[in-house]
TrEMBL record:
Keywords carried by this UniProt record: Acyltransferase, Cytoplasm, Lipid A biosynthesis, Lipid biosynthesis, Lipid metabolism, Repeat, Transferase
Name of the encoding gene: lpxA
Taxonomic source organism: Chitinibacter mangrovi
UDP N-acetylglucosamine O-acyltransferase C-terminal domain sequence ranges: 176-257
Record's protein name: Acyl-[acyl-carrier-protein]--UDP-N-acetylglucosamine O-acyltransferase
BP term (GO), one: lipid A biosynthetic process
An example Gene Ontology CC term for this record: cytoplasm
Subcellular localization(s) per the UniProt record: Cytoplasm
Reaction catalysed by this enzyme: a (3R)-hydroxyacyl-[ACP] + UDP-N-acetyl-alpha-D-glucosamine = a UDP-3-O-[(3R)-3-hydroxyacyl]-N-acetyl-alpha-D-glucosamine + holo-[ACP]
Amino acid sequence: MANIHPSAIIDPKAVLAEDVSVGPFSIIGPKVQIDAGTVIDSHCVITGNTKIGKNNRFYPYCAIGCDPQDKKYANEPTLLEIGHGNTFFHNVTVSTGTAQDNGITRVGDDNWIMAYAHIAHDCVLGNHVILANSATLAGHVTVGDYAILGGLTAVHQFCTIGEHAMAGGGSIIVQDLPPFVMCEGNRAIARGFNAEGMKRRGFNEQDIKAVKSAYRLLYRSGISYDDAVAQIQEQAQSNVALMAFVRFFALSTRGIVR
């Protein structure tokens, strides 16, 4: 049986797995589905057309599935989907999607979303992403697996953050950030590639050398962006790590952080 505090308000139409825990003064709306093992602390609001997977943790004062902060929004039945094993710390906000996009905001698995972070409408987060305190994603942002955004980082709408990329605290990102690339500053500029992160995640020396070569093609070779993309795509045929660049190039539309 679900562990529901007497002061919590759960709409009768909400669907909660038997072992979901809901703390004092939290509110669960009628169109919410929450799977097994998820823990919701006190004073959380989970509303909207929201589907939450297994073993997630919501710390106090999270606001999940609220209406998008978009003036074009006109109460369309848009969605929020959250996967498994995510942690949402205090005061995190996550919006549903908008009809102007695919109508859905998606958060994958095993993400670590720290206090006061905001995930806006139509964002797509992969897996194992870290958003540090007060990191903010505008609408329609895509964040690849294992990306790390430092505290107070802000990402412009429609930007793509590549897999294993890293942004230093306070970065203002207004263009796409390629995989493995580290950036910092206002406006953010490239500061090398994430070799240490690759080592920690088990990439071998060959992978690290391949990514270093790709970084040099994009930032040090002096050739055009299109020529660098073509060469990296060709090299990706013999190195799996470089497929992260291929996936990024397929999504990137705003030019890259330089």
